[in-house]
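My main concern about presentation is that the manuscript never shows what a single data entry looks like. In essence, backbone conformation is discretised, so a fold becomes a row of integers matching the chain in length. An entry of this sort, consisting of the sequence and the corresponding backbone structure tokens, reads as follows:
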Amino acid sequence: MRAASLASVLMFAPLLAPLFATGCADALLEHGPPAKPHDAVIVLGCPAEEDGSLSRCQLGRAGHAYSIWKKGWAKAFIVSGAAVHSPYVEAEAMAMAMALLGVPADKIWLETDALHTDENVYYSMKLARKLGFEDLAIASNGGHAAFACKMMLNWGHPCVGMALDVQELETFMPARFAELHALRARRVEAWMDLDEREERTYQDTGRSRLPSFVLYPLMAAGSGYLPIAPEHVVPTTWADRRNAP
């Protein structure tokens, strides 16, 4: 996480504390196996390293997704994240690692437009609906997954969070580290940094997005904010993208 993002988290986290201190976060997390496999689990993105190798965060979330798959807790995944803080597409980086670990590439759907957590959730929710997925869960670190689910609930779609378990990952991930660290995400040649992309969105739509440290407390309190969703998205799996010329 780059310094600016961390600063945003630190600024809005105290404002979110009352929500989660009451046990709301825990109530939004799934403890143990679901009654039936989820139609899809949304895996929230985070940045790659400067050379395109997968970051510790990406490896953790890919490992978490694989653990969910091997337990039979999900029928499919939606991995979400654009090339936000670096020229490497977050969703593709995580999909690459998930497939290497053993998740079938045709069960990994790509959402490659989101720049922020609210967009990760909203765009993935819209993609899931297009694909006919109704029973959704969100996989990330516990607090992140719970807050992302709170957003989805505010938008009228049921959701549970699936919290990453570091100790569980340590039982199988180290044996695959050499292969995982050799992976390199696809570089976007015409990449623009986040400020440039948000300025472009403002020019195109006349609508600007509040900073996360302002927006997210409002959303936690039940704001009706909706991200600007991309149009005409063609559903694409990692198998489609990987095999494309």
Notes: Strands lie at 40-44, 77-80, 108-111, 136-140, 160-163. The chain has one domain: 36-238. The CA atoms of residues 49 and 55 lie 5 Å apart.
